[in-house]
Amino acid sequence: GAHALGGLAARIPVPDDPARNAAALAAVREDAAREAADGHDGTRVAHPGMVAPAREAFDRLMPAPNQIARRRADMRVTADDLLRCPTGAITAEGLRNNVRVGIQYLAGWLAGHGRMPIDHSMEDLATAEIARSQVWQWLHHPRAVLADGRQVTETLVRQVMAGELDLLRERLGAAALDGGGYPRAAQLFAEIATREELDDFLTLRACDLLD
């Protein structure tokens, strides 16, 4: 009898780029349409500008106030489903994205921001937790090999981190990079991702760095 709400649609408007803005609107609309078709009763968006495309999809596919009566008897989740190892490739871009999001979010969090717009998406602590946990897992799992054949090692992770910091330095300038706490965030991300045991929460160690 509870309402089923979809996950947050993280895309945000891109006002200075019409093509990317149209793609962001279409992504939110498509995501909401999938959720409505799956039986959700509503969704969440990260920006007020994304309410319209999400609402359009739900109004079109869910004319009733909700879909609580739709019980989805066709869905049966078992213990095997929950314990099955994930499949798919680990890509170099996926590793770079995890490092990029982890560093930028941590820099924002240490500056007092609970959410950060990164690559035209509104990222929160949950995203950063996934990013650092995946990197940690890949470093500690002997079968974690990139699609291009490279093993995920601490050396590789630190090389990727250095590259992402260089890109940020080009975009923000050296003064803004250092003043924004990015080197400190990168050091913290590296410590958490490479230590022997996985920390329970990202912010437990981050709290020690708060001014």
Give the helix/strand layout:
Blueprint: E1 5-9, H1 18-38, E2 42-45, H2 51-61, H3 79-83, H4 92-110, E3 116-118, E4 121-123, H5 125-140, H6 154-172, H7 174-179, H8 182-194, H9 202-206
Describe the protein.
With 211 residues, this protein is mainly α. It is 55% helix and 7% strand. It is built from nine helices and four strands; from the N terminus they run E-H-E-H-H-H-E-E-H-H-H-H-H. A two-stranded parallel sheet has the order 1-2. Helix 1 (18-38) packs parallel to helix 2 (51-61), helix 5 (125-140) crosses helix 8 (182-194) and helix 6 (154-172) packs antiparallel against helix 8. The longest helix has 21 residues, at 18-38. It is globular and about 55 Å long. The model has no long low-confidence stretch (mean pLDDT 92).
Q: Indicate the percent of residues in helices.
A: 40-55%
The overall pLDDT, averaged over residues, is 92
Radius of gyration of CA atoms, rounded to a whole number = 20 Å
Portion in beta strands: 5-15%
**Shape annotation:** globular
Write the element-wise H/E pattern from the N-terminal end onward: EHEHHHEEHHHHH
Q: Please give the number of β-strands.
A: 4
Straight-line N-to-C gap: 46 Å
Based on helices, strands and strand pairing, what is the structural class?
A: mainly alpha
The strands making up the biggest β-sheet line up spatially as 1-2
H/I helix tally: 9
Poorly predicted ranges (pLDDT <50, ≥5 residues)?
Answer: none
Reported for the largest beta sheet, the result is:
2 strands, parallel
